[in-house]
Amino acid sequence: MLKKLVLILLLPTIYSTAFAQEITQTIRGVIIDAELRTPLPGANVVLISDTTKLVGTTTDENGRFRLEDVPIGRHSIKVMFLGFKERVLSNIIVTSGKEVLLNVELEDAFVMMGPIEITATKKGEVLNEMATVSARAFTVEETDRYAGSRGDPARMASNFAGVGGSDDSRNDIVVRGNSPLGILYRVEGVDIPNPNHFAIPGSGGGPLSVLNNKTLANSDFFTGAFPAEFGNSIAGVFDLRLRNGNNEKHEFTGQFGFLGTELMAEGPIAKEKRSSYLVAYRYSTLSLFQAIGIDIGTTAVPKYQDLSFQLNFPGKGGSSIAVFGIGGKSDIDILISEQEVAERDIYGDQDRDQYFNTQMGVLGVNYTKPLNASTLLRFTVAGTHENQQSEHLLVHRRIGADNLFVVDSLTPQHWYNYTTNKAVGSFHMHKRINQQNLLKVGVISELLMFDFLDSNYNRGLSRFEVRWDNNDQAALLQPYVQLKRKFSENVTLTIGLHSQYFSLNQSISAIEPRAGIRWNFAPAQTLSIGAGLHSQTQPYYIYFYRIQNTFGEMVQHNRDIGFTKSRHLVIAYDNALSSNLRMKVEGYHQWLTEVPIEITPSSFSTVNQGAGFERFFPDSLINDGLGENFGVEFTLEKFFSRKYFIMVTGSLFEARYRGSDGIVRDTDFNGNWIANFLAAREFSLGEKSAITIGAKITTAGGKRYSPVDRTASDLINDIVFVDQDRNSLQFDDYFRADLKLNYRINAKKVTHEIALDLVNVSNTQNVLKLTYAPDLFDPNTNPVREEYQLGFLPIFYYKIDF
Questions:
Q1: Is residue 546 within 8 Å of residue 555, measured between CB atoms?
Q2: How many CB atoms lie within 10 A of CB 718?
Q3: Are 131 and 572 in contact (CB under 8 A)?
Q4: Tens digit of pLDDT for each residue in 525-581?
Q5: Pick from 219, 234, 131: which is nearest to 184 by CA?
Q6: How confident is the model over 308-319, as pLDDT tens digits?
Q7: Closest Cα to residue 801, out of 217, 212, 266?
Q8: Burial class (CB in 10 A: 0-12, 13-18, 19+), 211
Q9: Scanning 80, 170, 460, 759, which has the fewest C-beta atoms within 10 Å of its C-beta?
Q10: d(CA 459, CA 446)
C-alpha cells in the first residue's frame, strides 16, 4: 500500500514541471482596528519574500490593500500604521489555486507625551483584546499542520500545554484536569451545541467534528480565567470565527479522503457591492476505507454529512450583515445480531443492537455597525438545534453446532429521543473612551426549548419505565461589562463583571468578577496574572430525569440543582527568546465549588462525567461537592521559519475531588502529566512543489480506573466497580506517535495537495477502559477485559484548489 502511495506522490511532480514560467498569485485583504473593527486607511503593507525582493502598498479609504504577482511559496507580511502596534504575519502560504485573503487586526499602541514608539505584536498572541492569560490564537493552517489533528480544532488544541485527549476515538479534550463538559464552543458570538457527529447528550466531544476548518478564520482558544464576555463554562472556550468568501472571483475546492468527500465554493454575490458567499459540504466515505480492512474501531458503517456557509454583505459606513450557518447529521447501526463471531467494537455494547443518529445546526445573522470613530455595535440573532435518538434491542444468542453465534430473539431494551432548540439574541458595544481606556458591554439571552423522551425496560420489574417525558422551556441570561486600561505601553489591566441567570430553577450567579494584568517588564518578557469566578449549568437532560419517590410518584428530583462554580487563578511568564522562538510557563490553581454530588454517600460527582458514549443517571443530587485542580505548564515553540517548526509542551497537574462520602479522590481525568513533541520540515521540490514531513509524540499518565466487583457484575451481566475504591488504580502510561506527509503541487491556477496522516504509527496498545464481555465459547474465561484505544490508523486525502 505504501509503495503505491509513494508512486502517487511522485507522479504530479512530472506534471508540474511542464510549466516553466513563474507562477504568481494575489494577496489582498483589509486592515482594521482590532478593538473597534473599523478600517485603517493609509496603513503600510510590505511583503517580505525569501529573497531580497520587497513589495509594498498602502490601504485605501476602506482599509483594503492588494499585492499582485506574488511568487508562490511562503511569505511574510509586515503591517504598519501610525499609532498602532506593528504586526508581522509569517508563513503565509501562497498557492496557484486560490488568492490569499487576509483580515489583519492592529492593536492600538499607547502614545502619550514624548516620542512615539511602536512595538511589534508577538506571534501567537490571542485575538481577543480583553485576554491576558491562558489564551492562544490558532490559525486554520495549524489545524492541518499538526500530525494527528485531522483538521479538527479540538484535536489540534490537545497539543497545547494543559490540554489532553480522553479517548483516541473521540475529540473530547481535558483542560487542566476538568471534564470535557466544561468546554464552551462559540461561533460568531453565539454559544452553540456540541459541534460533533455522534455526540451523546451531555458530552463535550465526539468521534468527528461538524466544524469544517476550511471555513474558519483565525480564532482563539482559552484554558482558564477567560474574559467577562464568556460565561456558562468552567474549563475552556473555543471562540471560533468564520471567514468571508472571495468577493472578486469564484474559487472552488474538492477533496476526497478517509474522513469524507468535500466540496467548497466561494465567490462574489455582487462584485460592485463587494458581497460574497462561502459554502462547504462534506459526505462520509468511511465505508470505502472500512471495506479494504482499515480498523476504525467498529464493524458498523458510520454515515454523516455536514454543511457550513457564510454570506457577507458590506454596507455603508463600515457596516456589514453576515448570514452564517453550520449543520450536520449522522447515524450508525451497530448490529451485534449479524455477527457470527465476536468482533471488536469500541463504540457499542456487546449484548445489543444499537441504532443511533444525531443532528445539530446553527443559523444566524450578524449586524455590525460603527456609530462613530470610537464606538462599534454588534447584534446577532440565531437559532440552534440538536437532536439525539437511540434505540437498543437486546440480543439473545447462543453458540450453534458450527461454533458460530445463533440469534434466538431480539427484545426491546431502550429508546430515547432528545431535542433541544434555542433562540439566541446577542448584543455588544465597544467604546474607546480615550487612548487609555476601552469599554465593552453586552448581553447574551437564550430561550431554550426542551423535548426529552426516554423509556427503558426494567428486567427486575419486567416492565418498561419512562424516565423522561418532558416538554419545557427556560431562559439563560448573561450580561457582562469589561474595561481595558493601559497605564503605559508596558502595563495593561483588564477588569470585568459577568452575571448569569437560569430561569428553569431560578439559579443566579449575580456577580462574577474577572481581572487580569499584563506587565511587559523587559522588551521581550511578559508577566501576567489572571483571576475570575465562573459558573456553569448542568447538562440539560439531568434536570428532567425522573425516579420514583417513597410515595410511588415519578418526580424530577434534580430540577433544582444550581450552577457548578469555579475560581481561577493563573500566573504566566512569557519570553520571546527571538523573533521565531517563544517560551511560556503558566502556573494555575482552580477551586471547584457547588459541584453536584449524590445525597446518598457515594463517590459520584459530575466532575467525572462528560466523556465517552454514555449518559449518566444520578440519584438525587445536591450542590455540596468540591474539586481542586492545580499545576504548571511549559511551552517552547519555534514558529515556522526557515522551513521548519518545533513545539514542545508539558504539564504537571493534580485533579482531585470530594464526593458525598467525604473521601478525597483523583478525578477520572487525573493523569498527573502530559508531554507533547511536534515538529515539521518542508522540502522544496523545484519552484512549484513542496513536501512537508511532520511528526508528533504524545505521552501521558495512564487513565484512572476502579477495582471491579465481580459478584455484582455477574449478577447484572454488566460491569460494576467498587465504589469506595473509585480511581484507586491507574493503567499504564499512554504513548502515541503520529507521522504526517503532505505533498503540495502548484500548476497554473490549480493547486493539488496529497496528504497521508499516520496516526499511532507504532500501533501501540493503549488501554481505554475495562468492559464486561463474557466469552460464550469459554465461560471460564474472566469476563472483565481491557478495551484498547484505536491502533494504527492511516488517514489519507487528496485536495484540489482552483
A1: yes
A2: 12
A3: no
A4: 999 999 999 999 999 999 999 877 666 677 888 999 999 999 999 999 999 998 889
A5: 234
A6: 999 999 998 889
A7: 266
A8: buried
A9: 460
A10: 40
